[in-house]
Amino acid sequence: SSGINAEYGGRYDNLVGMFAAKGRSIPCVGVSLGIERLFTIMEKRMEKSRVSSIQVLVASGQKGLLKERMKLLNLLWDSDINSEMLYKANPKLLNQSNMPRRK
Fold first, then answer.
1. Nearest-5° angle of CA 82, CA 89, CA 75?
2. I want to staple 59 with a disulfide (CB 3.0 to 4.6 A). Which of 33, 42, 72, 96 is the partner?
3. Which residues pair with 33 in a beta bridge?
């Protein structure tokens, strides 16, 4: 376990009672599951394993080359070369060059 909570819960007797007729006490519990938080945790774990296996980083110092970067990435994948890129339209070159080092 990573020690990161994505679920929360508790008793809500008094809260529900505020909306009940004559302020009755209604026993109840609630649970919340942070789906977005779970995806963030999963993404970080996947990024750690993916970054370590990257052989080629497709990057560009110019704007407007997203389609070209994606085409090149697909060619590399078709050749079974582990490659990756930042999926932003116009990422900064520094962010692209630091990508393989992120952990």
1. 30
2. 96
3. 7
Query: Smallest Cα–Cα separation from 8: which of 34, 41, 37?
Result: 34
Q: Which residues contact 39 (CB under 8 A, 6 or more apart)?
A: none
Beta strands 56-57; 83-84: pairing state: parallel
pLDDT tens track of the chain, all 103 residues?
456 667 778 888 778 777 777 767 778 888 887 888 777 877 777 776 555 678 888 888 888 888 998 999 999 999 989 888 887 888 887 777 776 655 4
User: pTM for this structure?
Assistant: 0.45
